Amino acid sequence: xxxxxxxxxxxxxxxxxxxxxxxxxxxxxxxxxxxxxxxxxxxxxxxxxxxxxxxxxxxxxxxxxxxxxxxxxxxxxxxxxxxxxxxxxxxxxxxxxxxxxxxxxxxxxxxxxxxxxxxxxxxxxxxxxxxxxxxxxxxxxxxxxxxxxxxxxxxxxxxxxxxxxxxxxxxxxxxxxxxxxxxxxxxxxxxxxxxxxxxxxxxxxxxxxxxxxxxxxxxxxxxxxxxxxxxxxxxxxxxxxxxxxxxxxxxxxxxxxxxxxxxxxxxxxxxxxxxxxxxxxxxxxxxxxxxxxxxxxxxxxxxxxxxxxxxxxxxxxxxxxxxxxxxxxxxxxxxxxxxxxxxxxxxxxxxxxxxxxxxxxxxxxxxxxxxxxxxxxxxxxxxxxxxxxxxxxxxxxxxxxxxxxxxxxxxxxxxxxxxxxxxxxxxxxxxxxxxxxxxxxxxxxxxxxxxxxxxxxxxxxxxxxxxxxxxxxxxxxxxxxxxxxxxxxxxxxxxxxxxxxxxxxxxxxxxxxxxxxxxxxxxxxxxxxxxxxxxxx
Length: 537
Description:
D-Amino Acid Oxidase, Chain A, domain 2; 3 domains; 10-stranded mixed beta sheet; about 20% strand
């Protein structure tokens, strides 16, 4: 179904069971859960799918090591329960999207003997809480073994290390895959459609007036229930519903920087348990590069937050502290900032101390809001939200929730040996085959077939992305802008800004041919994407 057909369907006088506002992890997860229960679902997103916080994570599927530490130190049951839930959801996440998420070892370096039993026992407890759904047992390793696993580590004063396991995933494509899965189950999904106002009859919500931000057209969508899943922006919609509504969120900003692969070995990450100001820092291999993050500072809620130079310097300073490799600002290939939606706590100004739990609220008019949470728990949040929606709006689902064991698009026939098949059948280079296999799963052959129609060239010689992916994204993956493709269908902008700028004209040319853009639209895309690539992805 094309975007024009989706918009036409939304403009009909159909009354949906649920209208979900927000196309990030939470909103897309809700759309999957509700549609798979047989409910009639529509989802709108004012920008692109996962354009906000959901594409700017640390790319980890985790229970939350730092939350466990705080739970033990402060005897905090809420932090403890958050870890248990996260470890359970980590298992479901990896099972439902094995092409996008994988088991991942991390090393924690220890430079003081007194820290050895404390850190090791804490990670053993982390394993224990995971139970039979654990990803591997933590192990204490000696100094030499730690340096073999992570040769870049500063050897001076290194005593030992602990290896533990979490998951790693592709966040932007995970959100896209949820949207594709929702569509496969009957949901209507439209990005670049913004909620303008809420429609009410006798004080009760009955729909939303929306605007297509690409064409400017306005129309209404009617629904029995409206769900506010707008991440950091949920208070804006709550106050659109009720101007007197008190905020429930506090936002913090986390930035990440990307360096070349020489700063991290393939297949193993580094977790620094305590920086100079008590935060946790990760140095991870990602997309053939080194991903370093994150900071955690109070932030204003804006669409495209910008990284501050002092935050970049903070991360570089810690890389220098823990590595024997010199690093400078010139080594940074990409940088981005993201907002974390944290449940408001009035007794603390330190966002690092806030619990990343979620909150479900129903207003007097019937606006159902889901606030807070994190990527790992998206499925559980969606389940609880749809359960609440069924009760609140008296909906009649065809079946109960079954999302705990529900393969997403690309997962059903995923073959872990699929890379070899792609190399053999299509002649792909190993890095291209690896990318296709893990970005598209069992759908990889559909994109690969397209590469045979004159679209088999690499976009950039140093990266594994092919021209066929641009056309496929515009044709099948909701991509409507060149920035949608460069930042979220393929992650080029997130790993190499200079390369993304270089290929932008070709991306616009390919999308223009597929979507029928005139010269004015091409110029608009060039200007907007260059602005994004220069200021904030």
